[in-house]
Amino acid sequence: KESTTFWDVLISFCEEMSPKTTKSFNTTAMRCPQLSLLTLFVCGTCVGGQLSTVDSKRRVDCFPDPNASSASCEKRGCIWDTQNYQDTTVPLCYFPSGTGYSVFNVSDDEILLTKENSSGNAVNPFGKDISPLKFRKQYYGSTLNIRIEPSSASLRRFEPDIDLLRGFTYSSDSLYVETTTQGIFSFSVKRRSTNVALWNTSLGGGLMFADQYIQLATYFASNNVYGFGENVHHTLKHNLNKYTTWGMLARDEGPNAYGESTNNLYGVYAFYVCVENDGNAHGAVIVNSNPQDITTGPGPHMVYRTIGGMLDIYFFPGPTPEEVIQQYEALVGKPMMPAYWALGFQLSRYGYANLSDQQAIIKRNREAGIPLDAPHFDIDYMNRNMDFTTGQNWQGLGGYVRQLQQDGLHVVLIFDPAIDVISESFTRAVEKDVAFIEWPRDDLVQTEIQNLYNVTNGTKIMLGVVWPDRHTAFPDFSDLKPNTVEWWVDEYRRYHKSVPFDGLWIDMNEPANFGTNEEEPWYFGNDDHPNIEPLNCSKSNASDRQWDYPPYKTHSAYFYGSTSELASKTLCMLATTRRGQDLFYNTKNLYGLYEAKATLKAVHEVTQKRGIVLSRSTFPGAGRYAGHWLGDNQAIWEALRVSAIGVQEFNMFGIPYVGSDICGYSGNAEEEMCLRWHQLGAFHPFSRNHNNNNAAPQDPAQWPTVAEATREANLFRYRYLPYLYSLHFASSIAGGTVVRPVFFEFPRDNQTYDLGLQFMWGPGLMIVPVTEQGAETVSAYLPTSATWYSLRDGDYGETVFSGNMRARKTEMIPVLARGGVIIPRQPPETTTTASRRNPFDLLIAIDPSNGTAAGFLYWDDGESVISDFGSYPFYEFRFTFTTNAESSKLTIMRISNGNIRMPTLDSIDVLGLPYAPNMSTVKYMEETVDMTQSSYDESKKLFKIRKQGMIALDEQPTIAELIWSTNGLTKMSITRRPSTLAALLPLLRILYWFV
């Protein structure tokens, strides 16, 4: 036939091979050895007349569910491998290479795919494949969108309603798509400038698309893959040397750092960044809110599986990692701008007996001189753990909050979505026709619970069990009517009158539920909770059970055991949302995002200020409304380490305002670990110490050594808050990260690709935390394409190189400024309220290769609601610095104007200045500057300019200049280590850091 290719012949030959034909094969080999070698290469090992084997590093698992066997594998039309591999993660049951869809028709805007004419023998293990499908591509600027879905309008699939912006994105590069037209369909996404394939779906196993099982496999462009979540990752870069499956379903499950754990946590992110072998970077996100999982493998490749929706994939060409994030956020939304106070240190604990207990802890930390901005109040303050109530032991809470606010502090309160059905809030909700998550039909309602309460009797509201001691209902924040959100805002407004909070912390919003489908839930016999009957989903008939018991339950269930259920720790999958229009099966992963959106609206309307929202459960786009903490971690060194990775990952996911529970949530924190965690946590954008009621107190004032280390680390943080705030401003305006992996700044340096325990603040600061017990030094890799200056007091301004750095517990961890940046700072106080009043200073770290540096500052009142940056008043300054043998010049350009008075710029530190300044020539706008308090250290090449009220930034012209001339003495600046010193470098490092 004309369409028959040489590969078709070889595949047919492979399929016909069996041990019985060995003799004829050998005869053929003697006649044509070239053909036999090629056939062996293509076919691999032929097993009993079945399809050809696939290399063990490039397989698509045909049995991702438990209990695979030879018989069950072959029943699915797949290949069972009898070999024993040293790598135990290799799938033994896998799809043959001829599995997938065939091209049926090609038109200008879409390709129709059909299953009937496909040549593979394997069947979809979890349902009949839908046919035909349509494959469509579309561009939004530089962003490429590929959609694969049923072609029939009657088979419309669920799409997450998350307000995708699909904004125009710019890139210096572009992507194009190649598709096959014959045989099994596959497509490749390629970079136009290099023709590198970013995706290549020709991987054996191919595309499957049943109602409740969709699968797509693709090769990665390289092994340098980052992202996917929310899971615990012990390394920043995924380990693609083996097969690993990660669950993705929002679940009330704390991060387990004790060993490799691939279970699903609170949020869902089918998003990754990949650095190609040439240093270019791209990213991709699959927008799907159903239960899903992903397997990464040594191809390098991945297999994506979901049990609902469609394949809606967006590709971002970069070509830098930071541009990838900006392009991704142009789709899902740019991050919200936190209030300035929210960048201060925050302190919390679950388990205070009364208000006096918490007051005492806050007092002792303030008296220890530890900078503190925001105490958090956990559910202890509530009456019977009910939202919008205050317990008897906390009756002075409102007055205490007002006193803290008078002292310049702010207060964050926790709220859960589950509403006690005997509460006044629930009664008002019913009266206002608020939407709740419901049973789909009356006959499924759990009447033995429902009829306990007059207010729920006769309704379909699905009732569960959470912290209150009566059953709870779950508001549906996705309600298309305004009733639910308006009620939510009004409840906060009512409570704010008694306790005037500044920020809100929304927990348990996966949503979490206790004891679903369990006969003996954990709270039975617990003194803190009555033995009320749990939610049971099992009354449903066969047609309803498909949602709670689908053919494939994903790794998000199987991880916990072969009989584990999707409804575990949450509500029934067959529940309905949007007043019966949608299934909870489809929308569960969106619950936290919808609640965050409603809660931010409440903060803005109730407080009339920007405030902050912290959400435990998140999804792409949640960063527009909330920050995130990494959940209920453990007080162990491993958890300290993975927190550094988690913060970097969530910056990639679009939530830069993120941090961990410093010192760990569960278990008793050890003193040294807590000290080191505070030194690290001072560089989380969201910096909070928090633990639970079963653990010993761990606030920093608990130990003198921890108190001193925390005070020093927090004061350092507060000094650099203008820079951190400016990074958040830039992220909110243009998209991008605040904390970023080192490779984001050095994507061509492959030594940076797996530096998960070092990270950057923006482009300018490198943080090197101590993450090992007993360590007095820490090893760091510092890219040689940049110059690095120490910012610690003991070696301030000195040039630093890769290697072991001194890191005693009694001093700051290494924090380094990158040559070429200008960083705004302020002298620190113990609150951000006081710090903001202090004069600015500038840190100018010179790039010695060209004698330049640049930076920026954003400034506003730190608390006003920002609805539109286009009309919002704020200051933006751009700083540039140049130096040569004759003169130096700092240029300050005011880009935009605010509406507040700014502190003056009184101090400037210039690091790496190779030319001694002539003090008498320093001028600002032609006016001579008094330099009596200024100095130049020739040995350190450090120029300190000090003059009270030197520059009024808010009054200066649009462009202002500070200039000076040199004394004509040129000081050599070492930009690279001279080769003649190579043998001395180990000794020099020791002398430098230890003497």
From TrEMBL:
Pfam short name (any one): Glyco_hydro_31_2nd
Subcellular location: Membrane
Cellular-component GO terms for this entry: membrane
UniProt record, GO biological process: carbohydrate metabolic process
Origin: domain of life: Eukaryota
Any one GO MF annotation of this record: alpha-1,4-glucosidase activity
Domain P-type positions: 44-97
Coiled coil: none
Keywords: Disulfide bond, Glycoprotein, Glycosidase, Hydrolase, Membrane
Similarity remark: Belongs to the glycosyl hydrolase 31 family.
Record protein name field: P-type domain-containing protein
